Amino acid sequence: AFIILVVIFGALPSRKKGAANKGGDGGYTYRPDATPGKPISELKKKDPNFSEAEFLDKVGNMYVQMQNAWQNKEWEPMRALMTDSLYNQMSRQLDALKQKGLTNYIDNICVMNSKITKYYDDAANDVIIVELTARITDYTVDSNGNVVSGSKSLQKFLTYAWTLTRDKNAKTVDSDGMQTVACPNCGAPVDVKKSARCEYCGTVVTVDAKDWVIS
């Protein structure tokens, strides 16, 4: 039975990296026993521009961007999308791979589904938990290009529970426009959707929790 499953997974058609997110259709159901969860309508009351579909699409894009940054060994673009503690933790893990001369490849990324499973707030932040299901090809090679773990052909189906936080007084910004902050060194605008580094002076810019970040 195991061999049959492997053959089936390996025969599935590949999808290019960055495939469209199949989630974003809402579907959040408030569960009164899910303490300290609240109905998502409570968030929409104070942030009328909040859209479940747009939020989940954003999360799917975050997932693809994270996997690309990990594979490219360029972690800085994730600084604007994560809390400092999570960013630093994963940066250390990536540094450990670099020191061993290893590269972890994540190919054929497809976010298959995503849904909000809980919303709540605390004294400082709004918090949303998202269940995200993705399909990837995951393998690691050494400096000579030899595969040391994983498989170039076997596709993995993974389910994540992501916690995203935002300042509870923040409001939804235009999802199609630039999310800009001023560089603390030279004052130039930095589009944190593209990079966390100022293109003018090279200063690394951190976020101030005005938009959703992975925690």
How are the strands ordered across the major sheet? Answer: 1-2-3-6
Radius of gyration: 19 Å
Strand content: 25-35%
Please identify the structural class as seen in this structure. alpha+beta
Distance between the termini: 38 Å
Please state the oligomeric state of the protein chains shown.
Answer: single chain
Overall geometry: globular
Question: Helical element count?
Answer: 4
**What is the helix/strand order?**
HHHHEEEEEE
Unreliable parts: 1-26
Mean pLDDT: 81
Number of strands: 6
The main sheet comes to: 4 strands, antiparallel
Can you put this structure into words, describing what you see?
With 215 residues, the protein is α+β, with helices and mostly antiparallel strands. Helix content is 25%, strand content 30%. It is globular. The N and C termini lie far apart (38 Å).
Short key terms for the protein model shown above:
6 strands; 30% strand; two-stranded antiparallel ribbon; 215 residues; 4-stranded antiparallel β-sheet; 25% helix; single chain; alpha+beta; disordered N terminus; globular
Task: Summarize the structure in short.
The protein is 25% helix and 30% strand.
Layout of helices and strands:
Blueprint: H1 2-11, H2 40-46, H3 52-72, H4 84-99, E1 103-121, E2 125-141, E3 147-167, E4 180-182, E5 189-191, E6 213-214
Antiparallel strand pairs: 1-2, 2-3, 3-6, 4-5
